[in-house]
Amino acid sequence: MDPPFTIGEYTVRSKVGQGPQSTVWKAEQKCSGEVVALKQVYLSKLNRNLKTSLDCEINFLSSVSHPNIIRLLHVFQAEGCIFLVLEFCSGGDLESYIRHHGRVQEWVARRFMQQLGLEVLHSHHIIHRDLKPGNILLSGPESDVLLKIADFGLSRTVHPGEHAETVCGTPLYMAPEVLRFKKYDEKVDMWSLGAILFELLNGYPPFCGRTNVQLLQNIESCKMLPFSQLISPGLHPDCVDLCTKLLSTNPVHRLSFDEFCRHRFLRGKGQGW
Prior knowledge:
Blueprint: E1 5-7, E2 10-18, E3 22-29, E4 35-42, H1 48-63, E5 72-78, E6 81-87, H2 94-101, H3 106-115, H4 118-123, E7 126-127, E8 136-139, E9 146-149, E10 156-157, H5 176-179, H6 187-202, H7 212-221, H8 237-246, H9 257-262, H10 264-267
Antiparallel strand pairs: 1-2, 2-3, 3-4, 4-6, 5-6, 7-10, 8-9
Helix pairs in contact: 3-6, 6-8
């Protein structure tokens, strides 16, 4: 159906994005005129694992209020779909931001990393499993951008000592243990953070491949992260250290969430150290 059309209390104005199981629309609440994002999830396209992830997404977003996590305003069901009414972020996503601006300065990358509200995920034992620039939204004016993690459609609860094994996510940001079909824990999100940090600094992801097999081979054969020669001489050692430790192929050696938060690179505040 092409917009405009009405679903429940909302007038749908335009399509924002689409995935295999859902479509995201820009819409207005008919009475108040409030602009929102409507995530339409097609129930017929959900298997048991995806239904569990949808329940996890709704339960988590309903229970948290954090400036760096997208706000869930309302949930309703209509026409064989679940609709999540979410706050609308007018700044687009981090993928578009990188495509428009190219690589960012080191202090901007640090500020963005400081903004990702992972402490909330960690405290709720949630792993996102699809952290990538396209799932990080921008709110506020460009001079003072606020990042918000969105799209928890693949998230699930994993308590300490537990593991997941479903292969899911976006390959360029997917931890090698997932690509290897191994069991995994919350450290898959830390790998994704490392890939996002690398892309912010360089303007391109750290690893690529025409297939998942080739991508994994490129990851496992890498002896040193492929930083652009245009920026590597000027990068602070703390920045390189954080990126390298997040992108450790062995999850045992990869930074934990707590180690990430305490890292020297993130403790800086201004444009210099």
